[in-house]
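Weekly structure sync, notes
Attendees: PL (lead), two postdocs, one rotation student
Agenda item 3: pending single-chain targets
PL asked that the sequence for the first pending target be pasted directly into the notes so everyone works from the same version. It is reproduced below exactly as submitted, 346 residues in total.
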Amino acid sequence: MAKQQSNKDNILDHPKRLLVGGVAVGVGGFLVYKLVRKIITSAQKRNTEKQANDSPEIRQAMMLRSAMNPSGISWMKSFDGTNTPAIFDTAKGIKSLDNVIVSYRKLYDDDMLRDLQNELSTTDYQKFLTLLSSNPQKKGGTAPVQFATKQQMVVAKAEVFLRSSPDASYHGALYEINDNKNIIRKAKVGEFLGYATGNQSFDTKNNVKFIEVAYLVIKENLPASLKAYAGKSYTVWVSSSSNYVDIFPYFNQMWAKYPKTQAEVSYKKPLGYYAGMKGLPEKLVVTTRVTHVLNEQLKSPIKVPSQTLLGEYLETFDTGKKRYIKFRTVDNTLRWVAATDITIKN
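Predicted structure, written out during the meeting:
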């Protein structure tokens, strides 16, 4: 007993020795922890790799890593060039982001979204998130969002906030009454919101994609209740979630689903409405037979009869096998038609 007390007193008399001993135990424990973690991580990686043939999420995690770290050497990731197009292509096919993130962590013991933010510019990272959100087959999270090209018509599918900026932080709650809110008002179901300007923004903080929508109120032939708004223009931001808005390239498609919008578009026009009325265009595109009007991907969303005035001639595109005519519609939308199906009148 006396010997034990003597040893204790000796240790207390030499605190540096005690500290070194404690550090040695701490370092030893840390090394054991790192070793065990490495063994577990390696086992998870091997198990995850074996499942790659059966799991699209594992393959997608591997493709994203390969795009960020082409050499395959982890410490070279900061020096490898990033294959941004490959990242975008992979994003288009991701249905479950959460599963891809889990697979990535098991494979590489890294945070996938953090790695992507480090490898991509702010604009490209937003595009990556937008491509994820736009997949109509995605699982979990918010509903798929839609792309809106300039001058496409936007209608409220459900009650939705119209905002002065693309920020979904505010929700119109009572507790937010003193906040600097950006909510203008709430649109009604079936309300014609206007024409897409082509501007889109992704609110990464709230995971909401917005599109900018605008319209101009005509100056003439307005009912008395609307005369105070004559000549005024309105621009708002709205969520592009398929839960909240419908987007149409053609009036007749919109009118078929939302008949009441026909009255609204009689006085709500695109912002450049009056600029386009300074005179008739020099060249007009008119159909000579029943033909298909084509969108930007040269696909046909609509068929029109013979002797239909399509719009203003812009240019001719020759593929070597077929010629197409590009024209501008009355609502300022760019479209294509086969050159064999139209005539150009001066």
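Discussion points:
- The radius of gyration is 30 Å.
- Confidence is low (pLDDT under 50) at residues 11-27.
Action: rotation student to compare against the earlier draft before next sync.
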